Amino acid sequence: MDTPTPGTRPPVDAVDAVGPADPDPRRWWGLAAIALAQLMVVLDMTIVNIALPSAQADLGISDADRQWVITAYTLAFGGLLLLGGRIGDLIGRRRALIIGLIGFAVASALGGIASTGGILLAARALQGVFAALLAPAALSLVSVTFTEPHERARAFGIYGAIAGGGSAVGLILGGLLTEYLDWRWCLLVNTPIAILAVVGAVAFLHDRRAESETRLDVLGAVLASGGLLAVVYGLSEAEQRGWTSGVVLALLAGGLFLLALFVVAERRVAHPLLPMRVLQDRNRAGALLSVGFTTVGMFGMFLFLTYYLQVTLGYSPVQTGLAFLPLTAGMMTGSLGIAARLLPRVPARLIMTPGLLTAAVALALLTRIQVDSSYATHVLPSLVLLGIGMGATFMPAMSTATYGVDRRDAGVASATVNTAQQVGGSIGIALLNTVATSATAGYLAVHGTDAAAQAAGVVHGFSIAIWWAVGFLLVAACAAAVLITARPAPRVVAELPAEAVATPV
């Protein structure tokens, strides 16, 4: 049975997803708390990148170990998302969000005052652990709090803009804090953000624990976490060791094997960590595939464009961060100005597909960059178009992936969206960086290795990798166009006849 997109008639097994007829009058203040939590998680994926050179010099971290400042966070985050989502279903999403926020704040403070590289790495891993708990809780709270189609569209418009544009905010904030204060503030800034989010969650958010789920699937948790950890770690190591490395191949093969065992086990246990009913829906599958393939291209673009602006064009960290502002503005326009207005009336695929094609065109334009290209003529137009396309994509994709799910599965369904983002981003960084490096080496083999050739070779490598990113966005567009079939439905979900929502699972 297909799951409807937001604004569509819910299936008969989604009684809990419809929610109460009278919405909480303070729900928009609750959304502000959720938005702060999501912003904190997303910007932490990029804010530390700009601070890394200063942190490495200050703490004496070796070149071989510096990658772990990034990898420790992504490993824990990506590997524990499904477990974090199910814990939220069991203990309540509001409680999971608050615990995650407090833990994230403490871990961030620990990293901010770190006196050694080891303490910083441990703090980053702890950030990932608590991010895996709070991120699915935040998304599922949006899903179960906003059920009226037009309100849901606006709420997911805000959430989608933050989820898509938070990385650019991280680059801006990281540049400002690193250049004008100290790299430590790139971590310490999370503490006041988390405190505000906790206050908002306590005051304005409400949730109840699903009564039908009383046990945690330990076997599923071990298999899923182990498999995702191995895959994400293998992808991160591919960037350093190469795709033919025995370590990389063993990690990827082992991770895929554990995930295959996980699927088998989930079909047999009484209380699965990830019920297959969550995935056995073409609309949700289309949304997840679109998100995954899209983030492959997005994360790669952030990496290459950051290097291009700083290394090739000579931008400072602050200038680099500010250069991404048009992307954020485009995200807000695409998410709130376009998708949120259209989603209650237009099928999601008719928003996502043009959005993804627009983003693909933007990246194709970005392949024209040269060593001496102008930001205004070669980068700015691409960033604006890319932001609009991504904003029009992420908002309906996230809403579609979480709509119509039983309340008991809301957390784990949200975790699958975050997992698709995290794994897609890991693939993007590892795969596209390998493509760029190989293309640069091939260019230098033909044109020599003088300074001019090296600069041109690096830009050539970026351009080739961005073409690959274009391909991934086109695949995402195909997934959205073919798999997402649900159509909009009446505006007021609460007025559905009782017989339409009376049969639980």
Automatic annotation (TrEMBL):
Pfam families: MFS_1. SUPFAM superfamilies: MFS general substrate transporter. It is found in: Cell membrane. The chain crosses the membrane at residues 28-48, 68-85, 97-123, 129-146, 158-181, 187-206, 218-236, 242-265, 286-309, 321-343, 350-371, 383-405, 426-446, 466-486. GO terms for cellular component: plasma membrane. Keywords: Cell membrane, Membrane, Transmembrane, Transmembrane helix, Transport. GO terms for molecular function: transmembrane transporter activity. Its main location: membrane. It is a multi-pass membrane protein. The keyword Cell membrane applies. It comes from the Bacteria. InterPro entries: EmrB-like, MFS, MFS_dom, MFS_trans_sf. The keyword Transmembrane helix applies. Residues 30-493 form the Major facilitator superfamily (MFS) profile domain. PANTHER family: BLR6921 PROTEIN, MAJOR FACILITATOR SUPERFAMILY MULTIDRUG TRANSPORTER MFSC. This is MFS transporter.
